[in-house]
Amino acid sequence: MKIEKVKFQGFGRLIDKTFTFHEGINLIEAKNEVGKSTLVQGIFALLYGEKKEGLKTKRTTNWYEKYKPWGATEQYGGEITYSIGSDKYCLYRNLLIHKDIEQLTHLTRGEDWTERFPMDKKKDRLILEKQLGLSGDLFRQITFFTTYSLVPAQKKDRTETRVLEKLRSLLKKGEEVDLTTVKKKLESEIQEIGVKKDARQKPYGKLYQEINELEKRCKELEIAYQQQKKEEARIIELARECEKLYEKQTKIEKQAQRLLEEVQHQKNQLEIEKLIIQEQALKERIEQAHQLIQKRDQLKREREENQPTEWISLEEVNELRLTLREYKEKQLSLNEQLQKIEKLAAEQEKYKERNDKLIAMKVEEPERMLSKLATYEKWEYKLFHHKQENEDNERTWIEKDMKLVQQLQQKEEKIRGQLDEKWAKIQTEDRGTDKWWALIAGTGLITVILYILAPWIWLVTGVFTVFCSYWLWRKKIHKDEERKKLMELQLALQNNQVEQKKIFYTWQVENFLDLLEKHTKIKKREQTLQGKQLIEEEMEQIRQEVKNWLSDYVDKVPVFDVDKWEQMIIRLKQQREEILQRLFDYQATLSFLQKQYEKEQTEYHDLGRTIAYYQNHYQTSDLHQIEKWFEQSERVRKLDLKIDELEEQIELFAYDLPDWEEELKISQKTRAELQAQWRSLGKENLEQRLLDLEKERQQVLKQFQEKEKEKANLEGQVEVLRQKTNLLPKLQTELKALKSEWESLHYKRAAMETALTVLDESVEEVQENIMPYLLSYATRWIYNITEGKYERIFMEPQEKEWKVVVPESNEQKPIEQLSTGTIDQIYFALRLAMLELYSEMTKTFLPIILDDSFVHFDYDRLQKTLQLLLQLAKSHQIILCTCQKRERELLDKLKANYHLIALQEL
């Protein structure tokens, strides 16, 4: 497999970038943080996409958010052109997770092959997985070599084991069996079932807890069932006792009936009983009325005790709470902003002090110095070449510039005339505008008044107001256009003056008269025989002047060289512009912060005035006191409602109360008379017998009612217990089912744990079976990369420890005892051996991608490693990323063919 071209629409900082790769070694050279790792990650993303592998749901990988394009999120993706054998493909991907697109084109045949890779349940086509037989994780582990490839031992073992599993599968069956994936799935399912009994979030622990709770509930219901049986027996016993009491009561009532029949003639007794009932009813009504009055009086006293100093509503309390909280927050915000302003002002002053000389430099000084150096260079050319060409003739140049200045001055006079005309016109139009606005305001107010008082007349003033407003609006538009033209003329005048100044700076004069004088000097100098000497004197004067100027801004002025001095002046000019821009940024930020501070300060004062209003209104700023007044106000309002209800009830009784009291007195008087007549009849013994019988009947009735009440209570309790115990058979059935389900889960988990143990043994078998093949390749690579210092590598089965053999002494050394650089070389050799073995077994020669893998190698180790990579480049494409120049220098020294890609800062 070879990668031929990568085109990024957007990936991290790589926007609309294309990279071409060749066979053999492709050297990507760039500084750190320029985009090497982004390019490598982008290649992997375009090959395998943005989705995380091994999940049931669609989720993004860990790098997804990190490499979203800067400012162009919709362009996240690109296309990659690669070849597998003689077939050439182009794979396009849109990496946005919510609308991911992938399209595969077979460039050799010119066909769209996307539909040949149908989507799975997660809507993934798995194009590279099916073409190479490798998942994205395995492809990265085999082909990617980074600075951190020399990882801790646990991660090394895990990576090597997965690759060894694939190699063993290919050796035995010619197809892939990923034992690690199966192990992960088994471990995941065991974790889903649960291991501990007290883990309620897992099925195993959840069922165990449910069984315990259900057993406890069944025990409680069994106890309730026993209680139910006892109470049912007691109910039967009470029913028998009630039957006996009822018979006794019936017997007493019959005896009383006979006595009543004997005194039937005592009709007054009935009247007495009737009066007693009436008196009792009247007493109850009167008592009820007096109780209502007492309750009302008690509530009024309570209202007086809870009367607040100030009446406060809920809305006022909430508003005060919110105002106080905003006041404190605003106070803290103002303090923070003031600190920021002071800190920024101090930074600005320090920056001014550090660059005071460049800030004080006049804007025209660098141009003037550059002009002097240009003049120096021109005279130097004239002196040393002893000829005057037409384009270098100084007199011709000054005469051309004089004509140009004259034209510019004429144009300046014309522009100034237009400016005066426009300015006069704008001032004329401004006169009277305020009066028109006052007129519109007055007519507008009149229109509103007429609209309220006389609906039909307001149309006249309204139309006039609208017409005036439209006329003023048109006038404002015309005025804005005139002001725009005025600004354009001012800009043209400014540009004209700048052009004139440039010409004056070029000839080192202040005005046109000085330029004429300069022209006369040049003519005289050309005519005199001592022109050469004068030029040399002026050249020396220019050199000294520029040197003195430079010495003000640099610590050490270099030896005179026109080009160097020009570059130095240009750098000083650029530094001054950068400093002024920085000062402008400081000032803009300060201005913004000060405006924000003033705005929040205004809001802070407004909140303070609100708080002061409440303090003046309530004569306190204590929020707790105000809340206490609010609670008292609420209690008083509730008491008022209760008092109003009682007043309404008392009004209903108040009208009839005097009549009830009068009726009670009359009834008591009448009953007393009737009782006196009854006593006079001499029937005391009969009455006593009736009273005794009634007393006995009442006692029997009381016992009967108590038994009936006890029986009714027991029947209610039995009914409640019966409803509870009815669930007992169902719960026992559920308990049995839960125990069966828990045992099934227990057996299932045990089976999975057994399978996991068998798989662990299979992994060890993988290493034992594949290791001889791998070590034969690794021995050759280690021997070459260590220049024969170590030749053979093997692992002790009992100790699980890697060792190498020293050829000279045949000594066996554990890898952990070697130097860090040697361990890195040996691990790198093992990685190359696994890659070579995999490629030869699958007949697919994968590319090798190295991202700063040799940053810790010294010069000799790096040279030997590059020689080995040159051998490997005959069958594999190699993409070598580096932040140093050592690799390029060594490849040039080895006279190797390679393709250089130099990344520049974006």
Automatic annotation (TrEMBL):
InterPro entries: P-loop_NTPase, YhaN_AAA
Domain YhaN AAA: 1-50
Record key words, sorted: Coiled coil
Coiled coil: 204-361, 525-582, 636-741
Protein name: YhaN AAA domain-containing protein
Organism: Thermoflavimicrobium daqui
Organism classification: Bacteria, Bacillati, Bacillota, Bacilli, Bacillales
